[in-house]
Amino acid sequence: MKPIDRVSLFAAVVGALLVGCDRAPQQEEVEAATQTAAEIAHPAPPVTGREAPQFQFSDDEIGIALASTPGFALRRDFTRDYLSNGDWKTFAAPDVRGKPLVALVLDGSDKITAAELRIGTSTDSHALVTCLDPPEGATTEPPDEVRIDGQAFRHFRASDAAMSHYQSVDAYRSVRNGRCLAIDLLIAGTRPEVYDPPATPPFDEANARARLQEALGAVRIIR
């Protein structure tokens, strides 16, 4: 179908006003014809009853957003009094620069057990080259590819444990818009048995992992 010629359409509509008339059209008739031509050439979009998506976080430059996620608190840093790891991604090399972008902290997280979805980025050249590589010695199974909001990410699981502390992570990595994009589903804490009497964690690891997967579903790739 050929695109509508607005000028020709306007002329046709105004011409129609003159058919069977022996007078010049009035100004209001011309304005009405102009409006009709514009509406035909550029019809209004259909009303679907759906509102535009509301994000609780959005960064157009990096191209990522987060839909509303009940049960999680949004934080714009990785600094916690109960977590020592505040790097831009888990297992980040000490000489590779990056920045924390945003985190979703599961309600109830404390020094016994904490669960967070963390998103960090880096434009460091070494970070870009090694972005998809899992940390040596930390992975528990081979990496695979998953889709987040329809986009491909490299996924691997990694863990680290000491006598009293531990952390495990489902890590998702992608190179987008000249950046290494790191999404980590992090569970970390202190083993309850080191306390006397033993401490009660706010949630178990299985439940935390399931909730973090729910939070991952709130990630939107917008660029």
Task: Describe what you observe in this structure.
- The chain is α+β, with helices and mostly antiparallel strands and 223 residues long.
- The protein folds into 2 domains: 6-41, no CATH class; 55-221, Mog1/PsbP, alpha/beta/alpha sandwich (Protein Transport Mog1p, Chain A).
- The protein has 4 helices and 10 strands.
- The chain has helices at 6-18, 27-41, 125-129, 205-216, and strands at residues 55-59, 64-67, 72-75, 99-106, 113-122, 144-148, 151-161, 165-176, 179-190, 219-221.
- The protein has a 7-stranded antiparallel β-sheet with strand order 3-4-5-9-8-7-6, covered by helices on one side. The chain has a 3-stranded antiparallel β-sheet with strand order 1-2-10, with no helix packed on it.
- It is globular, with a radius of gyration of 28 Å.
Compact overview of the structure:
The protein is an alpha+beta fold and 223 residues long. The chain has helices spanning 6-18, 27-41, 125-129, 205-216, and strands spanning 55-59, 64-67, 72-75, 99-106, 113-122, 144-148, 151-161, 165-176, 179-190, 219-221.
